[in-house]
Design a protein that fits this description.
Its cofactor is Zn(2+). InterPro entries: Ribosomal_Su5_D2-typ_SF, UDP-acyl_GlcNac_deAcase, UDP-acyl_GlcNac_deAcase_C, UDP-acyl_N-AcGlcN_deAcase_N. It catalyses: a UDP-3-O-[(3R)-3-hydroxyacyl]-N-acetyl-alpha-D-glucosamine + H2O = a UDP-3-O-[(3R)-3-hydroxyacyl]-alpha-D-glucosamine + acetate. Keywords: Hydrolase, Lipid A biosynthesis, Lipid biosynthesis, Lipid metabolism, Metal-binding, Zinc. By secondary structure, the chain is α+β, with helices and mostly antiparallel strands. The chain folds into two domains: about 140 residues, no CATH class; about 120 residues, lpxc deacetylase, domain 1 (Ribosomal Protein S5, domain 2). About 20% of the residues lie in helices and about 30% in strands. The chain has six helices and 18 strands. Strands 2-15-16-1-17-18 form a six-stranded mixed sheet, with helices on one face. The protein has a five-stranded mixed sheet with strand order 5-6-12-7-8, with helices on one face. Strand 9 and strand 10 form a beta hairpin. Helix 1 runs parallel beside helix 4. It is globular and about 50 Å long.
Length: about 290
């Protein structure tokens, strides 16, 4: 990330790689705290009140909507990137239990990251599904993207985290055999390694020219609450992410804190990508995991 941009900090109420990297790209210091650990007054800054949500999905989308409504896009001196060549990974979906193959291909500058679902004959079963806020359909235990009436592709968070963490702005992601991205080892690390093996290159548009990478800069503090969790974005001089989780029902997890300098994108592979998702016994029946 360019330190010449007046980055701002962020805080998100989510445990996924995707939220963490999204905050890094938006700008800055990132904190997830229990509301018991922070005075109420901090939640109300510059007229932004703590907007409460009754459902986790609404809370996640409300956070993103708040961020996108109070930000401005800034061009950087860095060009947009894509993968230098295609790469393939395959495995079983965590929630569906279905084997699927994922193929990531180069895309033109300005196209962004998007999914296409194919059947076993190679025919496309879906229209292009952009990895964008307006296409989020569900965030219960995993993130699903799709059209207006149905979920199209699921458990996208680890893959999108790896793409964001390595700076891949544009790529086409094809799923064949299923519509859920394979869990692999439960982290983003295998995706990172596959993308590094493929390499990166400057993405060119249809005219054969490069385009500048754009980032979001938050205009003022924002806070959104859900239960005893909240997300808040505040002005700061550097890009630092602080993430906390309080999970007393799983002693192996418990309460943990992690702080990472988002300015050091090179540290993503060692500091963030290896973090693995976890589940509890009560969630087991809703998942069909094949070993």
């Amino acid at each position: 990330m360019s330190t010449s941009v007046p980055w701002l900090p962020s805080t998100m109420a989510s445990c996924g790689h995707l939220s963490l990297m999204r905050a890094a790209r938006i700008g800055l210091p990132f904190q997830l705290l229990s509301s018991e650990l922070l005075p109420c007054e901090v939640r109300n800054t510059r007229g932004k009140f703590c907007r409460r949500s009754s459902a986790p999905f609404t809370a996640h989308t409300q956070v993103a909507e708040e961020l996108t409504s109070d930000v401005r896009r800034v061009e950087t001196e860095k060009p947009q990137l894509t993968v230098a060549k295609s790469l393939v990974k395959s495995g079983v979906g965590l929630h569906s239990g279905v084997w699927a193959e994922v193929k990531i291909l180069p895309a033109a500058a300005g196209e962004g990251r998007y999914f296409v679902v194919r059947d076993t004959h190679g025919d496309e079963r879906s229209d292009r599904i952009p990895a964008a806020l307006s296409y989020v359909r569900d965030t219960t235990l995993s993130t699903w993207l799709g059209g207006p009436t149905k979920k199209g592709v699921g458990t996208v968070e680890h893959l999108l985290s790896a793409l964001e963490g390595l700076g891949v702005d544009n790529c086409r992601i094809e799923l064949t055999g299923g519509n859920e991205v394979p869990l692999l080892d439960g982290s983003a690390l295998q995706w990172v390694e596959a993308i590094e093996d493929a390499g990166l290159s400057i993405a060119l548009d249809k005219q054969g020219t490069s385009q500048s990478r754009k980032v979001l800069v938050i205009n003022e503090p924002i806070t959104v609450c859900h239960g005893d969790s909240f997300v808040a974005a505040f002005p700061a001089a550097s890009s630092r992410l602080t993430y906390g989780i309080d999970f007393p029902q799983v002693p192996a997890i418990g309460r943990q804190w992690f702080t990472w300098s988002a300015d050091d994108i090179g540290a993503y592979k060692s500091e963030v990508a290896p973090a693995r998702t976890f589940g509890i016994f009560e969630q087991q029946l809703s998942c069909q995991i094949s070993v």
